[in-house]
Amino acid sequence: MAGSSAGGSRLGVAEAPTAPEAPTASEGPGASEGPRRDRPGGARLAWLDALRGIGALLVVFEHLAHVYLPEVRTAISGWFVPGTWGVFVFFLVSGYIVPASLERTRSVRGFWISRLFRLYPLWAAVVALALGLALAGLQPHTRSMLDGADPAATAFAHLAMLQTLLASPSAVYVMWSLAFEMAFYLLVVALFALRSHHRSAPIAVGLAVAAVAFGGVLPSNGLSRAGGTTLVAVLGTVLAIVAIAGAMSGRRRIALAGALLGGLLAVLLFGFNGTSKPWEGITMLAVMFLGTVVYRVEHGQIRRRTAVVAVVAVLGCAMLTGVLHVADTVDTAARLPYQREWAVTVLLAALTFAAGVALRHRRLPKALTLLGVLSYSLYLLHPVLLEAHVAMFDGSRRNDWVMAVGFLCVLVPVCWLTQRYIEAPAQRLGRRVRNAVDRPR
């Protein structure tokens, strides 16, 4: 294994296969700067922003429909879940681009700096806004989730964005997916350190099969119930911080130990401290690695036959695991609609991503790519603003398209402002910090 350079943690890159030019678009659940022509590959990757835009619209529609369009939501219930569809699209995009960004720079330190500056500034602003509005009585959902929760455990769990995997409630309910993203990052870094990052296909298939075989018997929040929520939340957060700090170290052995610690932590949390439905979490992790499989076959890193087998196996297992394990949590009479909507939702997400890949060289609607640029803000802000909107403008309204459109007319400009004045400056600062610490000395 090659030693690390003074400019950053570079685990084993001297012997790693050289990857083709990787995407440079932003990673994360909607985090994007958009396709800029001054960024290499930016215009070429507009399709990823378009997919993020679609994902954001689906998630926003899911929650908006529950409030203002209940008849529409009832009509599609039992057939597909727009919010889950959108999150699956986000996860496929993350799987496609996140490992590639690490392999392109080959700097674990730069990778983590980029992630932290992309995700945390807006996340912190939204958490502060949600808590402030909760104190003002405009966030009943946030208050109900946090009431009765251990403040210390909840605060610690949020520090590492792992609260969902640490049996703690989220300050904003959509932040559960960020915990899955963060655990995915930990695994990606660990695989890179072990030089196993090219094994995306067997990893994706293995996870999908594990979800089918063990998803129904794995304990929900098992570690937290055994050791106590506060202890596990504090310990898990400390270990995550130590793992990330270690992986960013300029010393080879410390960097390797940190990367492996992070990967082990992610495996333990997904396997033994997952959500109320462990099979869902493992399936979503498999879907992320499936996105990586698509990237690798597109860039000639794996055989097409291998990719086809992985796609069929992961999607087949993903649909099957819902059909099998939904019976564990749903009454017998309601099983068929839930089984059907899970399977259809998985299929719709896969078809959406496949359409994006097929159209990646075509000119796409600017509205979709713009929504992709705003998608991280749209994703985090919409539940906070929706609750405040309902509280201020009569939450008893039903089937009201005017209120739904009015909310969107407020949401999009606010997200444009947060992207311009919070996300973009933080990302620019992150690039400067990353370039400074990775500069050879």
Structural class: mainly alpha
Spans of 5+ residues with little confidence (pLDDT < 50)?
1-27, 32-43
Count of domains: 1
Report the portion of residues in β strands: under 5%
Helix count from the secondary structure assignment: 17
Order of helices and strands: HHHHHHHHHHHHHHHHH
CA-based shape = globular
* Overall radius of gyration: 21 Å
Q: What is the average per-residue confidence, as pLDDT, rounded to a whole number? A: 86
Helix content: 55-70%
Specify the biggest β-sheet: none
Oligomer: single chain
Structure explained in plain terms:
The chain has 441 residues and is an all-alpha fold. The protein has one domain (43-438). 70% of the residues lie in helices and 0% in strands. Mean pLDDT is 86; it is low at 1-27 and 32-43. α1 (46-68) runs parallel beside α16 and α10 packs antiparallel against α11 (252-272). The chain has helices spanning 46-68, 70-76, 82-105, 108-135, 140-146, 151-159, 176-193, 200-214, 222-227, 229-247, 252-272, 278-298, 304-325, 335-358, 366-373, 375-392, 401-438. It has 17 helices and no strands. The chain is globular and about 60 Å long.
